Amino acid sequence: MTYDVAVIGAGISGAAVARELSRYRLKVLLLEKEAEPAFGVSKSNSGIIHAGTQNPPSSLKGRLCVEGNRLMREELASDLGLNFVQCGQLIVIFDPADLPELEKIKADGERLGVKEMRLVDRAWLDANEPNLGPEVKAALLVPSAGIISPYRFVYALVENAVRNGVHLRTSCPVTAVGRGADGLFALTAGGQRFAARFVVNAAGLRADEVSALAGAPTFTITPRKGEEYLLDRKREHIARHIVFPLPTKTSKGILIIKTSDGNPMIGPTAHDADDKEDLSTSDEGLAEVLAGARRMMPTVSRRDIIAYFAGLRPASGKDFIVRHEDSVPGLVNVAGIQSPGLTAAPAIAVMVAGILADRGLELKPKEDFHRLRPRPVHLFQVPLERTRALIEQDPAYGDIVCRCELVSAQEVRDAIKRGARTLDGIKFRTRAQAGRCHGGFCTTRIMKIMQEELGLAVTEVTKRGPGSELVKEERK
Amino acid sequence: MAAALAARGAGVKDVLLLERDRHLGGILNQCIHPGFGLHHFKEELTGPEYADRFVRRVEADPGIEVSPRSFVVRLTPDRELSYLRPGALEEVRAGAVILATGCRERTREMIPIPGSRPAGVYPAGLAQKMVNIEGWIPGREAVIVGSGDIGLIMARRMALEGVKVRAVVEIQDRSRGLARNVVQCLEDFGIPLHLRHRVSAIRGRDRVESVDVARVDADLRDVPGSAFSIPCDTVLVSVGLIPENELLEAAGGAIDPATNGPAAPAVNLTSLPGVFACGNAFKVYDLADSVTRDSELAGRLAAGYLGAGA
Q: How far apart are CA B26 and CA A76, in angstroms?
């Protein structure tokens, strides 16, 4: 089949582009090198829907972030059944001499169109963010910031895109981007060949390599590592806002991040790395994150940490790259999408559709575009009376698989029906294995459900795709 | 089960035994090694045999209603309980509640062990369940972090299944497990025990490929130049147990933050009247026989609270 557009990479950028293009009468292909969408850069995202502050007023990322934030609040959260929580953010200072810095962030934000920001004093903070430490002197309150589950955002976009006709192909790393005699792009991915009129390269950490394969070695991606540490859900109420220090030159600093699932998170570090595969955490990273978080909130304790991970930001210069490559007609690069990429993605997608239209892609709206995507059930998000109704409708909602996060067998089955193929895919969709016991209780239960639903031998069940099998041998 | 039977023995008429698994017996069912019952029954039994002695008595007792696959989601200070089971959300009110919820394993995340996060890192108890209940062999070459009893027993268990157990790595200067387990599970199988060492990194992208091990000084800091690598595809983590008291905590019961056990003046008590905790939920025991002894006391305490038999 010949596709109108091939989107490379099913992270947040590629997923948003695919979903945006699925509004139109187009044949769209979404290629992902990993076993499931969101398994690259996006899975390690902090889950913050930024307001647009902490970006230069002239930057692409600032403009797209403000627009993405608006799209989330006004459309996407309800259309896609996302658990977006507009908790607001605080940027705190430890020295009254830094007040002009906050004033500048506020003025820059206002120029970008961020609304309702205000400086708050220590008395306000005592009343509204009581766990802040004594070193904090004042803050900038930014009410339009919020939180979301980053991978469930990606899954919602991909599910809705697929519902609207997009073809998703996972475990398909792109290894060649050439031209056929017909002038179409000829892509080789996962050993298969695909033809497409346009290519949107949203390959995250590999975007530079994919662009070079296509003949446009116009930028490089430098991985910048961030280590994050998750706290027990018992500490859910440690902070009411997302709490930031003043930004540094390379990052927004070590934050205290509320998450939409309840577990607060602290981090991330920001250190340039050499290896695009290196997702290791370190003793030094933990110490840095703890020190940064405890300066803002001294009650954060190492004992509260239940999980940790590292992610790599795909950095390329200071701003996003969202452009047509004139040297390779039909190639649109979406690259260097580091923070605030999760927020900006829906706006990036609209921009990409515009670029493609400018290059001759006809965007005819589908009459039967399915804008809405029902919200999956999560028992941990619903009151007991709703749980009762769910169990009456489907008994397996009463069959608890994950004790720490309260996940039922039905939710695991539902995740598989929605596309989960690996233990991590089930974890990201349902939270089963993400709690304090780290899968000690539920792993075998989930593996059995996967075997039933997917017809797998236990030796074929993986954590995150081929090579990550959990069991080497079954004794009968 | 011991608490339920003892409560009945002390005159309680109506006991509801809620079990989240399909079968009674809890962790004993996966402990297929011997060593149970020497005190309580004066004979050596395996875990499942030990559990079965209680299962038979529970099932024969018309005053104990067993509800399997039942997961308690809510406990109030006045002893209202909500639990889920396939097909129903049930709500009951009890005169007394005994929490016999056991303990959970500390994980690599709690130490924490740095490095990558590939497949092949398991809490030792999970690996025990895989091997003994499911018949799944998790790997070919294993390193065991921590020398708790589960780790020692799993070292032997894996060796018996043909897995090459490369080492047990213990940060302290002696094993945390029973002396008999060090002898029977490690020495008899020629498995090296590295005391005063720690796993300083787990390596491998998709599946574990190796671990870095370093010697530590008296302050548990790495000794420079002491690090070495052990190739393996599996890491079992056996670094301690934590009483499982989230229900008690949610009900407002006081928790000792150092142990996660109930903050209480005496064994089996909690800060909530009529709510008792026994076994590993109260404190982590070395021996199942001791759990049984104290859990029977919990059953009698609950009966006393109810004024049963008076």
A: 45
